[in-house]
Fold:
Amino acid sequence: MYNTAFQQQSLKSFSFLVTGGAGFIGSNLVEYLVKYNAGKVRILDNFSTGQRENIIPFLENTANNTIVELLEGDIRDLETCHKACKDMDFVLHQAALGSVPRSIDNPIATNEANITGFLNMLVAAKDANIKRFVYAASSSTYGDSQKLPKKEDEIGKPLSPYALTKYVNELYADVFNRTYGLNTIGLRYFNIFGPRQSPKGAYAAVIPLFAEALLTNTSPKINGDGTQTRDFTFVENAVQANIKAVFAEKTDAVNQIYNVACGERISVNDLFETLREYAQTDLKAIYQESRKGDVQNSLADISKINTLLGYENPIKSREGLKITWEWFKEKGMK
Structure:
């Protein structure tokens, strides 16, 4: 992936901290930064959900000029956050406890990681004079709003503890800009998927679960009737958004919130049908009760990120699914 650079500037003179860098999106960011010769990349991860195998190739890559460091630690510890931000130019903050169901099962753990941890990172970034703090926000912030497509300034009430924590992140980031002058950009991810997304654990996302089921000839489970729609967004689009956010030069582009998506939606049933087509199987899904906190339909308006960040030509869901399926198939055959 990443055959095209998303920035004009050379990355050689810059250092980047990627929190949650061993995770799905974080490791894809690390891959991009290494490929385009960033001066230094520091990964902060506690491996609660991240996988060491995601970053081993970058830590062992001596052929590239990029210095890649691993700091094993937890964002819930302020001292660790200060250590992580030391001598860094930019922060790409991906570390969080994701999943709506997980937050419903354990709201305290979600709060500690996503609010206390986030606040620690803001304080550390401020104290280290970080040039820009780009962080993973979430489309879950739109809550019970029924409006489609979703526009950044029109949100509803949160439907889960996870959604609430992500909204609080946006509020804290705004306060830190107004009070301390810290430059921040929040990226509301819409159902990001792609290589390195784990099918393991009770809170795994739907696409890796489908891929694993198809590879093992096991009927996957679909929550609800499968007619719910999502703006499924390939991970390369999220990487583009992060890099464009780091180097955005327009004054009105900074200290903003942006949707990161494709601007199109497909149903969960259509998603499974597409993967079945790639797998060349007639395997059937098993339908079960809908999950608490889930919305029925989601679709992003991406005009703001197009205009202010120059986000362009996002890889559409079907193309991204093909790439993702091939990755899982190759990985599963090893």
Remarks:
- The CA atoms of residues 141 and 163 lie 5 Å apart.
- The radius of gyration is 19 Å.
- The chain is about 40% helix and 15% strand.
- The longest helix spans residues 107-127.
